[in-house]
Amino acid sequence: MTLPTQATITEVGPRDGLQNEKQLVPAPVKIELCTRLLEAGVRRMEATSFVSPKWVPQMADALDVMAGIPRRAGDTVAVLTPNMKGFEGALASGAQEAVIFPAASEAFSQRNLNCSIAESVERFAPVARAAKDAGMRLRAVISVAFGCPYQGEVPVKSVVDVVQRMRELGSDEIGIADTIGVGTAEQVKRVMQAAAAVYPLANLSGHFHDTYGQALTNIYACLQVGVARFDSSIAGLGGCPYAKGATGNVATEDVVYLLHGLGVSTGLDLDKLVDAGQWISAILGRKSLSRVGNALAARRAAQQQADEAHRA
Ligand code: HMG
Ligand code: MG
Asked: Which atom belonging to ligand 1 lies closest to the Cα atom of 145?
């Protein structure tokens, strides 16, 4: 079995991570987080969401955050756009990528988007057209593809149906998301292979939350079937406000450690990611959820102590 030699990471911490914070995180902190991530080599980042502030108050400062993020040629700064109002915000903010986010279960669609899957596709259609007209990249991320907190099991066919609809809308990439982190490796392979039967494998991505501790294993399973695009969140920040009990996304530091260990290049600087992860965790007043981040930070601290003792 040969694994891909290169993987593409989309950093989702500033959006999927911070959207779930109870305390309002000030825009300058969000901007500094994005800046630190870019300095660590991040080239693709979900920065914020243009969603209803009544639904997700934490993302109400989307325009301010977008205005403060340093822009480099070639980077893709993405934002969530549930409808045309969201798309207008995206366009005004200079985002390079619009993200639409249908669900694979009716129950979750109602909770997250206040409409059925079919209605959500109708709302996404003009967003997709407008994104194309504006020369923006269009990405779709399909929630609850491996299990739903309200419905339970989600048939593979339901996921494939939504993949087909997102393909018809012209999605440049389709993410298959484990919103509540319940998927296991063989299931992940089955769903990814079923999706790849109707949509190019090279443009499929995996979005894993680590609620059940399966995320890294599931990423390895994806690599085994040729999926080489992943979303991850610095320090494992995150969760979905409409998926109770869902913990953070898989931590970027952990994913990068795994990939580099497998000889899969990412273009990311692990040391700088660790710095960013430790920094934002300290700001939020808690320990990072990245095992790799904490281990490397502890090793560094021990080394520093030893150096100081040596000098004394
Ligand atoms: P609705 O209440 O049905 O919307 O919500 P509406 O069209 O009836 O409008 C109601 C009010 O919202 C109006 O304001 C609109 O202007 C306003 P009012 O006249 O009452 O003052 N509104 C907006 N305001 C700002 N930006 C907008 C917008 N749209 C309407 N874009 C809606 C429908 C889709 C808007 C709402 O359900 C919503 O915002 N949902 C987003 C929920 C969300 O962000 N969830 C988290 C992200 S998804 C996720 O985390 C999963 C993912 O990570 C993958 C995974 O892990 O599964 C992607
Ligand atoms: Mg998510």
From this structure: 57
CA angle 103, 109, 113 (to 5 degrees): 110
Closest ligand 1 atom to 144 CA = 57
| CA separation for the pair 170, 247 (Å, rounded) | 31
User: Which residues are known catalytic residues?
Assistant: 240
Bridge pairing between strands 76-80 and 229-232: unpaired
pLDDT tens digits for range 180-193: 999 999 999 999 99
Q: How far is the CA of 111 from the centre of ligand 1 (A)?
A: 11
**88: pLDDT strictly greater than 70:** yes
Find the ligand nearest to 49 CA. 1
- Give the model confidence (pLDDT) of 230-259 as tens digits: 999 999 998 666 767 677 899 999 999 999
Domains located in the chain, CATH noted: 8-311 (3.20.20.70)
Q: Report the pLDDT averaged over residues 98-126.
A: 98
Q: Ligand 1 site: residues with CB under 6 angstroms?
A: 16, 19, 49-52, 55-56, 80, 82-83, 85-86, 101, 112-114, 141, 143, 177, 179, 207, 209, 240-242
Q: Nearest residue CA, atom 35 of ligand 1?
A: 52
162-216 pLDDT, tens digit each: 999 999 999 999 999 999 999 999 999 999 999 999 999 999 999 999 999 999 9
Ligand nearest to the CA of 178: 1
Residues 110-143: b if buried by 16+ CB within 10 A, e if exposed:
bbbbebebeebbebbeebbebbeeeebbbbbbbb
Distance 310 CA to ligand 2 centre (A): 46
